[in-house]
Amino acid sequence: MTELTVRTGHRREQLLALLADGQWHSGEQLAERLMITRAAVWKLIHGLTDLGVLIEAHHQGYRLAHAIDLYDAAQLSVFCGERAGDLQHIHTLFEVDSTNTYVSRCPVVESGKAVLCVAELQQSGRGRRGRSWYAPFGESICMSLGYMFDYLPPHFSSLSLVVGIALTRVLRDLGAREVGVKWPNDLLWQGRKLAGVLIEMRGEPDGQAQMVIGIGLNHWLSDVTRAHMVAQQLAVCDLHEILGEQCPSRNRLVALFTVELMQCLKLFTQSGFSSFMDEWRAYDVLNQQAVQILQGERSIAGIAQGITVDGLLLLNTSEGLQQFNSGEVSLRARPS
Predict the structure, then answer these.
(1) Which of 100, 135, 294, 303 would bridge with 140, disulfide CB 3.0–4.6 Å?
(2) Terminus-to-terminus CA distance in the chain, angstroms?
(3) Other C-beta atoms within 10 Å of 179: how many?
(4) Is the pTM of this model over 0.85?
(5) How far apart are the C-alpha atoms of 265 and 165, rounded to whole Å?
(6) Catalytically annotated residue among 63, 169, 182, 193
């Protein structure tokens, strides 16, 4: 990376920090604060818009579409409280290919400890089964938590369900009472997608396993993003829509998720999924619902009957009760 590239990236992040309050800033003021020319400010603005950052331009100057709290490692550490001591490192990035990929390159060196990564822009975010996760600047939470297990706990295949439970706990405590989990790893509100989880594992020679837990959550979607989602026939919602002015900042929300995840992962290590089964039943949005499972070219219809302790979906079909593994199927609501 050249010195010019580093300097340009630094100026770009300084500019965003100035615009983060959502107020108008004249080109002259920005140039003075950054100690560059107005032409250089204009060039940085256009570079950011090319990355998908929504910046409004007017005779008054420039502003973001709405105020945003940029990720800050010091704030995250404070919000995590005592649990901050369990974090080996907090990475706050402006731009990354994928937070999961980044964390996978940062090995956790001690069992029960974690590495946290958040990014303002994620260019190659991934969902289940190779799908992409669309996350425009400042509108979503893109975070990954790397966690080291000394050994694989009982019912290890149900880990994604534990993560969904942890996130739902936090959101319901904040007031999002109708948020539930759609097996195996989506969070829904009133039938629309709020968040998704992607878990990847890297085994170690000594039998340890580092899990990378990727979380994408719609925090405050712009009208432009909503129009894009509608065009893609995606039914989505965001947390600001649910909680309004009570919606927490991204830094606080990431910290709340991190603290709850760390607590749940420690319990999962000790007792597997059995400790979470009752709570899953309370959050399960598919239970007793008519669903259709697509498995390759095969389509199976039935009534969802909950899950096994290993995280397999139970489906009552015309051929009897069947079990399905999360890695093999996708779900669609069956037409009534």
Answers:
(1) 135
(2) 56
(3) 24
(4) yes
(5) 11
(6) 193
Give the 3-state secondary structure of residue 244.
Answer: helix
Q: Are residues 41 and 84 in the same domain?
A: no
Is 332 designated active site? yes
What's the total number of domains in the chain? 3
Instruction: Indicate if 334 belongs to the active site.
Output: no
Is 83 found in the same domain as 171? yes
Exposed/middle/buried for residue 160 (C-beta within 10 Å: 0-12, 13-18, 19+) = buried
Do 134 and 187 fall within a single domain?
yes
What is the spatial distance between Cα 96 and Cα 308, in angstroms, rounded to a whole number? 37
pLDDT at 157: 86
Taking only the tens place, the pLDDT of each residue in 237-290 is 999 999 999 999 999 999 999 999 999 999 999 888 999 999 999 999 999 988
**Cα distances (Å, whole numbers) of residue 190 to 198, 238, 315, 334:** 22, 11, 22, 17
Are 313 and 184 spatial neighbours (Cβ–Cβ below 8 Å)? yes
Let me know if 298 is a catalytic residue. Answer: no
Q: Are residues 111 and 238 in the same domain?
A: yes
Catalytic residue among 7, 131, 266, 332: 332
Q: CATH code at 90?
A: 3.30.930.10
**173 and 300 co-located in one domain:** no
